Input
Amino acid sequence: MLIRQKDELPSSEITPERLYYNRREFIRLAGSAGLGLVAQAVLPEQLAAQERWPKGRKGPFDTDDEVNTYKEITTYNNFYEFGTDKSDPASNAGRFNPKPWTIRIEGEIKKPATYNLEDFIKTSKFEDRIYRMRCVEGWSMVIPWRGFPLADLVNKVEPTSKAKFVAFETVYRPEEMPGQKRPFLRWPYVEGLRVDEAMNPLTLLATGLYGKDLPNQNGAPLRLVIPWKYGFKGIKSIVKIRFVEKEPPTSWNLAAPDEYGFYSNVNPNVDHPRWSQKTERRLGEFFKRKTLMFNGYSDQVAHLYSGMDLMKNY
Amino acid sequence: MTRSQTIRWVFKPTLFLSCLLPLALLVWNFLQDNLSANPLDDITDETGTWTLRFLMVTLSLTPLRKITGWSALQRFRRMVGLFAFFYGSLHFTTYLYFDKFFDFGEILADIPKRPFITVGFAALTTMVPLALTSNDRITKWMGGRRWKLLHRLVYVTAIGGVVHYLWLVKADTQRPLTYGAILAILLGYRLWDYWRPRVASRVNPLRSKGRLQPSLNGDEGDL
Output
């Protein structure tokens, strides 16, 4: 099974060498900020922002594409719970408190229960995975996630034969999430996968990126990562996972059913009704790239959709 | 300095430089790496937003003049309007370059296919004849009545601009609807201003007789 291959490269091998600083950036900052204590307090943060994931040995699921900077990943994203500008999550997520966190797992499984997140993931086997992330808006990033396969969780909770889909729900805290005070989406945010999609070894439950805990703006403390689907399928700050028999509702599909389907697989041949999906801008690059079928993960996932009309099941 | 000279040598240059400030700030922030991780999209968004803002300011000058009685406002209208065209052209250029890389085959396919591009392109196009007929000699040659009629196209431009914004957002329509509300007030004022003397003349035909004549003082009519 594919997932075993990953064991050849424990994350402990990557971790120690992780931090390396751009020398010129260091020199520039040090030179411009020779101002004693104040500068010293500011420097580490600025350096962390320029941090780049080291090149090195890659696991079987890792892309060779250049990884985006920590700053790019943590200051530019969509998380409408914190506002609709790409900078809003980073600006407005400060008040959000992801600790302690409980997660409810229920539905068609042997023993529905509410867990303390820390206890629940204590036995999970964490790995770093470098995935491409393609937003439905036409931009993309390469992100080193840290997490564990959703399949591990599915196996642990023992779904019944009736479990055909998995439904996810984001926390609802309008006091900490200002975007939830306005109803442009129906809150709380909901998402879903078919069980076979959930079991695919690429599907990750992430608790971190760049080897650190997830920042609030990226979906702390637990989020979904499905690299062959558009980014909005990667539901953030999950509080509930429910196994169900029928296809569950999904937030963007509810908001605009003709624009966002249940599957929302990255597909350059099916345009969004209002814009083309043929190309994408990788953040940090000037020219656009051709968007790849299933975001370049066809080998791992195309079989899930054999015989399906992807024009209809967009 | 006479009042007219003050406008010409003080107010107009100040306004001109102020209108360039959004662009200067954008360039500065780009060079300083203060924009987001997707600076090309920021430039597209900013130039688009400023096009709408300049259109709104252009359209608010006549109502402001009528309400405040400060006739000098009339003399800033052309400059602000041309800056709307300037920012609109920059916005369109970002689309041609950063989005399509001057692939004209792709562009020609894109414009009719995507409604928000279609209406945005149409709105920009309506500004071209307005910009071309904005100098004094052409205005004189056209004559006030025809010039005025042609320049009512700016209403179409502004409506097109707001619809373009409304159709491109994903879910949050608050900002485009805010521009829509402002535009509704600015156009609503004109309707009200147009009907007011006519309604009044029905009540008292003698009182408002003068208002029924086209009020063409010089080359610039009411817009």
